[in-house]
Design brief:
With about 190 residues, the protein is α/β, with parallel strands linked by helices. The protein has 5 helices and 7 strands, in the order H-H-E-E-E-H-E-H-E-E-E-H.
Length: about 190
């Protein structure tokens, strides 16, 4: 038995890892861990490829409040993140967003937009101790903010220019992102 284990340890480890990925209770934490390992700072869109948000009219429902229209963020720096509780890359980037929100929550308008049931989202936020402003999407987002991928995050300047259009998990609390926000806020 000892010789067998010594000879095939890598195969056994590989199949044990695969088994853990099949079990739903262990799959999500493993996927989140891996996503956090490979998350880097989001990339700024080249100035020549940036689009400007034309229509700010977008009705949302704030999780713990009433209806809100995105037009309240016109002329402000805003971050819009589309996410879901069942999405490992979304869950992976939430701690970095919480840290960014803790610093910039009073200077930048944050929108964490989901289409999930409120009860599910409330439970997720409470379980993880997040205080991020969550919005339920009742209507389709403006054309420039539509994506079929989760997570997708947009950083919008005061002039409506989409400075970052990032699909997939990223480290939002990076020095690079903070420097960009400082630059956008000073303009």
């Amino acid at each position: 038995m000892k010789i067998f284990l010594k000879k095939h340890w890598s195969n056994i480890l590989f199949f044990a890892f695969l088994a853990l990925l099949i079990i739903p209770q262990t799959r999500m934490p493993i996927q989140v861990f891996v996503q956090r390992l490979i998350s880097f700072s989001p990339s700024e869109t080249a100035e020549t490829k940036r689009v400007t948000l034309e229509d700010y009219s977008w009705n949302l429902k704030e999780l713990h409040a009433g209806d809100v229209n995105f037009s309240r963020s016109k002329g402000k720096v805003a971050i819009v993140n589309f996410w879901a509780t069942w999405c490992p890359p979304c869950v992976a980037e939430m701690p970095s967003f919480q840290k960014l929100y803790d610093t910039y929550g009073d200077k930048v308008d944050f929108y964490f937009v989901t289409s999930e049931k409120p009860e599910k989202v409330v439970g997720f936020m409470a379980k993880n101790g997040y205080s991020l402003p969550v919005f339920l999407q009742n209507y389709e987002a403006p054309k420039q903010l539509q994506s079929n991928a989760l997570p997708t995050t947009y950083v919008i300047s005061k002039t409506g220019e989409i400075v970052i259009d990032e699909e997939g998990a990223a480290d939002w609390n990076s020095k690079k992102t903070r420097a960009l926000l400082e630059q956008l806020l000073s303009k």
